[in-house]
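Q: Predict the bound structure with S-adenosylmethionine.
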Amino acid sequence: MQYDIRCTINVNDSIIEHIPVLAERLAEQINLPLDGVMVDATIGQGGHSLLFGKTLGPKGVIVGLDVDKTAIQRARFVLKDLTCKVILHTCNFSQITEYVHKQGIEKADFILADLGLCSAQLADVEMGLSFKTNMPLDMRIDKRLKTTAADIVNRADEKSLADLIYRFGQDRASRRIARFIVQQRRREPIITTGQLAAIVCKALQRPAQKRKSRIHPATRTFQALRIAVNNELDNTKKLLESVPVLLNKNGYVAVVSYHSLEDRLVKNDFKQNEKDNIYKIITKKPIVPARDEIARNRRARSAKLRIAQKQ
Ligand SMILES: C[S@@+](CC[C@H](N)C(=O)[O-])C[C@H]1O[C@@H](n2cnc3c(N)ncnc32)[C@H](O)[C@@H]1O
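A: Predicted complex:
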């Protein structure tokens, strides 16, 4: 099997390379029958689905979901030559059961969720997610959502802001950051990612790029706002609750997470399901990328993969 599935995507006239995270490790663990059904809850650029789709025959099916309709369009192009049936839909994975059943599919052999974001989304000005490039402070991956990150930073009271940055960003300087945000927005509204990143750097008295290896001071604040805007943790909980109902006996669920809040949800869900004799945990410890994968793909550096099998 060919593991190194890279694709390049043109976003705002920049060429972005996409490499699916931990693809080789996933492929080692999961063998699908030729007529298997895979549900890719986060189809993204279609990288993982392409890898597994190549192992399916004409009776196999891939159902791919994503809240980002541009991702669905890109995945449609990437997966166009597969011989298996491919069904793609713009949909939140919190509604996975309803959507899969609507397709006349009762059960799946493999459910994959590669949580978080793609590099293409980070580079996309319309997403407003990056502290490295100045863009409108939006952060809604699903543009049907009503509240943007700018709405939160300009409207929430100081305590709520501090709590949000602490809870979802785990930043111990949350109170100081919230105070600086509130002081700054009295002067002018905070409407770009550049403004917010500069305020956080000032609050933490840390320049943006002190050492190349160090994380940017605004990383945690941006993570917190993104989680809040997209309701990420609640959606992940709903997805995890739906999986046992949708999986065939001996079917697999695999989740790649990129921060400890998400990983904890997955770890606890798998443990509880194992206790209830619903799952057997395949990965006693999460699988993490090797150094050479991180060297090829920096986005992989915080990834953790957990796999369980339905009993
Ligand atoms: C890391 S990327 C997936 C990359 C994909 N595995 C690949 O190889 O191309 C994560 C994707 O999940 C999508 N996503 C995030 N939250 C979602 C949700 N609640 N429901 C559906 N898709 C979601 C994002 O829009 C993004 O495209």
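A: The CA atoms of residues 154 and 189 lie 6 Å apart.
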